[in-house]
Amino acid sequence: MSRIPIASDNDLIFFLPQTPSTIKGFKANTGDLLWSTEIGGSLSPGITYTGDVLRTPGIVDSGDGSRSIRFYSIDTQTGIYKNSSEIPFPSDRLAAFGEGKAAILGFAGDLLITDSQKTVPGLRLSGDGFIGISESEGEFYAWTKRAIYPIDSEYPGSTSQKLEIEETASGSFLRSGDLLFVGTKEGSVYALDIKDGSVLWRSRTGGEIDGLSMDREDLIVISRDNFVYKLSRNSGQRIWKRKLAGRIVGSVELNEDYSAFLSFGSNDVHVIRMNDGRVVNAFEVDNAAFFVSPPLKVAGILIVPYDRGVLGIARKSTCGKEKDGP
Fold this sequence. Notes:
With 326 residues, the protein is mainly beta. It has strands at 6-8, 12-15, 22-27, 33-38, 42-43, 48-50, 53-61, 67-75, 81-87, 93-98, 101-105, 111-114, 132-136, 139-143, 147-151, 163-164, 169-176, 179-184, 188-193, 199-204, 209-215, 218-223, 227-231, 238-243, 247-253, 258-264, 268-273, 278-284, 296-298, 301-306, 309-314. The strands form 8 sheets. Strands 5, 6, 7, 8 and 9 form a 5-stranded antiparallel beta sheet that branches. The protein has a 4-stranded antiparallel beta sheet with strand order 1-2-3-4, with no helix packed on it. Strands 13-14-15-16 form a 4-stranded antiparallel beta sheet, with no helix packed on it.
């Protein structure tokens, strides 16, 4: 599944479709298109903003068969280019993007973290190289087949930690205090002590882990078995699980009691009451649309990326008669 990067500053919605390579700025409360800016090459994996500047990395064909990675800076109000800069690193894999920094995997499994202003030395391991890197809440996590390396994005030339697990990370990470929660391709969720790397607990689901988030003091897990799970943060014990139609793309908190979940290949938004996992509302958004990225909540409006654009759903539309889920 290819996900569309999307970000918001609570007033504009910055929408980045992958084909064609265009960034569009929308007004959140009306959906009006404010500007559209074409950028050559494929843009991935995300966008962010700082003040009045939107920044995104992209892969550009150089014309001689080679490809390069560039950082683009764009005015958020007008869509006008401010500048762009090339990143000198032999790779065409933009692996993660957050807090204005890009994490790039090289062809040999080495790693570079950089921004549009400077390039720092890459991180290399002896033996096996990295096979993946992900970003969560401004922190980067790289992994090999059986180990995870939290990366300090300010000093990415080395890593002081190696957290070992018995499975392969899927790219879903979540830090909560001294705990690091890790989802795996085999369908497990690990709770690791970030200080010494010890495994505090492991909980199994029926599919690869696609997402982790917190609901108060407990953990919400999105699995490719099409279930949402709520687990105890302290023990990993299952509190509830709820099956939805299709592979779950992501969720957004509507308020402290309810969250909205989207499913890939489905037209329905499911609103779940988080204390007991009950589906309190499910409604069709567009009978010809399918969702492609996690939703956002902007200015009280539920923003849903789908295959042809973005949909804005008024808060009152998420209210409805309570219904039993499967």
